[in-house]
Amino acid sequence: MGSIEKIQLIIETNNYAKYWFGSDVALVQHPLLDYYADDIKLYSHDPVLLQHGINLVSKWASANALPLAHTKTSLLRLGPENSRHPFHVDSIPISESTVVRDLGLLTDSNLKFDLHISKLSSLALLRCNQLLKAFKSRSLSLYRHLFNTYVLPLLEYCSVVYSPSPSSVLSQKLEKPLRLFTRKVLQRCNIPYSSYLDRLEILDIYSVRHRRLKSQLILLYKFICGAAYLPNIQSYVRLSNSARRPMTLICVRPDIKDFFSNSIPLWNSVTCNTHKFLSPGEFVSLLNHSISRL
């Protein structure tokens, strides 16, 4: 929310969030507060509490000569039973949005990423066409390097957050830039028409789907091993007690569509024949062999 320069420390405990603004200490019972760099987010189901949090941040910002950027402050309402309560920053109404950009991701009021994926696919296609227009080489290795450098980072940024089902229309949209790029590159290099899988093998590139699924499972591995922090992970996933299949995971809330319910079936399919808990290197090697290039 807004544009603010620095929050030095945040400590969250149960129903309280204690945060230090410079030398000032404020104790607020909710709303929850998140921040990254110069972006902060306040969220709560209680409109009174949320407005109180907004007032607190605005007061601190003004006191430190860092007024909030009203034009960069947006309100995203979540849930069908939202109270539609109006909110203000310094008596100025906060504009309500159906879609907001948060750390580069477009998220709508249903917590869907359809618009983000559509725009991302269009941008990646544009970048592919720009590269093909700018370079006239017949070197496959050059085109592979160009795609990996200028297009792939667009498609991989935060992909574990919005990752759609592998067979969905959205997944096909994400794959479209690489399909087009590989087809045009092989045409330029006078290589006969080939299937998408053959083109990937010729260029030694993995599909966007492959890389996205691999990223999901590596993040899940990090959560399980404690290499990536996730509070109360036992509320989402736990290891089975199977001695024969020690890497089998149990989804605690399979009825909820989230990262875990989407990733755990794939994890269990990949690790079903594993008789020990693999090291990070062994796990990555298993993924490379288990998830098809396509």
UniProtKB/TrEMBL annotation:
It comes from the Eukaryota. This is Reverse transcriptase domain-containing protein. It comes from Caenorhabditis remanei (Caenorhabditis vulgaris).
